[in-house]
From TrEMBL:
This is Glycerophosphoryl diester phosphodiesterase. Residues 5-258 form the GP-PDE domain. It comes from Paractinoplanes ferrugineus. PROSITE patterns: GP_PDE. It holds the Pfam family GDPD. GO terms for biological process: lipid metabolic process. GO terms for molecular function: phosphoric diester hydrolase activity. InterPro entries: GP_PDE_dom (IPR030395), PLC-like_Pdiesterase_TIM-brl (IPR017946).
Length: 261
């Protein structure tokens, strides 16, 4: 295969293991994923935690909103036992403990190989730039906000909200950004992305519905990362489009297909 897309484990490879746990992320890297996709939210006391949903109910034994709890209140919860891939009779902190972005960055820097990390800021509001501000502060503390190509962890920030991309661009212009797309906002179909976003992140459904979209974005000089590519027909479609990144809950399945020339 001449054009090989990067393979990203969506939420750490959410199909096989509990999403957003350190164990899931490390397993995906062992399998050979080039990178990870991670959602982040703020706790009540301002810590960035790797949790997709606003509410704790689906992925933990807690109740209520992530944003309504302090880190100390979230730490004792089990974030793994809800998932069918969680071994019933074992105590595996890496598969059940809440993951803070700080811990994830530390673990990835200790991996000893280059890892690409796509960080999606979840629901930035018009009235507070806190998620992006704290994210950039944390990345600076880890020496990862300068976009240097030799950093062991290559960070890219993603959002469905153009507002979030603007904030990241203002706070840390060297960090590449992805504009996530579920529907097609004006201009994007002609290859225009807001606020210096280098990469477009359309959903696989949008790519199927708009076959001209990927060529237009690539023609305009953008890379294209598609989510969430879990099925064989979806994978074949995005490979035909020669996309630059495939974000999947099943990174092992994508890697296996890519290994067949
Ligand atoms: O990679 C983008 C994708 O993760 C967006 O959807 O809901 O899984 O965060 P969601
Ligand atoms: Ca996401």
């Amino acid at each position: 295969m001449t054009h090989r897309p990067l393979v990203f484990a969506h939420r750490g490879g959410a199909d096989a293991l509990p999403e957003h746990t350190l164990g899931a992320y490390l397993r995906a890297l062992e399998e050979g994923a080039d990178g990870l996709e991670c959602d982040v939210r703020l706790t009540r006391d301002g810590h960035l935690v790797c949790v997709h949903d606003r509410n704790l109910k689906r992925t933990s034994n807690g109740r209520g909103l992530v944003s309504g709890k302090t880190l100390a209140e979230l730490e004792p919860l089990n974030f793994g036992s809800w998932h069918p891939g969680y071994p019933a009779d074992e105590d595996l902190p890496d598969l059940s403990r809440l993951l803070t972005l700080d811990r994830l960055l530390t673990a990835l820097r200790e991996c000893g190989r280059q890892v690409r990390l796509l960080i999606e800021t979840k629901h930035p509001s018009r009235h507070g730039a806190d998620v992006e501000r704290r994210l950039v502060e944390l990345l600076r503390r880890h020496g990862l906000a300068d976009g240097r190509p030799d950093n062991l962890v290559q960070v890219t920030v993603m959002s469905f909200a153009a507002l979030a991309l603007r904030r990241v661009r203002t706070l840390a212009p060297a960090i590449p950004t992805v504009y996530l797309l579920e529907i097609l906002p004006p201009g994007v179909g002609r290859g225009k992305l807001p606020f210096g976003a280098r990469i477009a992140g359309p959903g696989v459904g949008l790519v199927r519905a708009r076959p001209g979209l990927v060529p237009a974005l690539r023609q305009a000089g953008h890379q294209v990362y598609v989510w969430t590519v879990n099925e064989p027909d979806e994978l074949e479609m995005v490979l035909e489009h020669q996309v630059d990144g495939v974000i999947s809950d099943r990174p092992g399945f994508v890697l296996e297909r890519l290994a067949k020339v």
